[in-house]
């Protein structure tokens, strides 16, 4: 295997996780917070610049710096979300953002990807659990009547799917 192929293989994981998935997540959070925090879009741009640097720059240090700065920005955005909407799901997603920051910081310090990927995986899992599963746990319980913000079906933000017996 030639050196160029080996470099692309080493970049694939960081590019897909930090470059693609996390840039979309940063953009989603930035759009949600843009009316209060105009700087929030900068986090997604920094992260996208890190992904571009990973592809275009031979030395990985600038990409690692940008992606670590992007992860710090996501932790700040998550802190803003916690102030505006303190809830279990936001706390779980914030823990995910912190795990991504830890992983990127270790990668920046020179740790190999196989030692860092666990932190990135924790970020993805905590983000998915916090944004998809935790709010649904409360939608059909007595707790949801007290905490309607946890249930998009009760607030009317999302139409409840109709079950059919086919």
Question: Care to describe what's here?
Answer:
The structure is a single chain. The chain has 166 residues and is an all-alpha fold. The protein has one domain. It has 7 helices and no strands. It has helices at residues 3-33, 40-56, 61-84, 88-108, 113-137, 142-146, 152-155. The radius of gyration is 18 Å and the shape is globular. The protein starts with a helix and ends in an 11-residue tail after the last helix.
Tags for this model:
mainly alpha
Question: What structural class do you assign from the helix and strand content?
Answer: mainly alpha
What is the H-and-E element order?
A: HHHHHHH
- Helix segment tally: 7
Q: What characteristic shape results from the CA principal axes?
A: globular
Strand content: under 5%
Name the average pLDDT.
82
Short description:
With 166 residues, the chain is mainly alpha-helical.
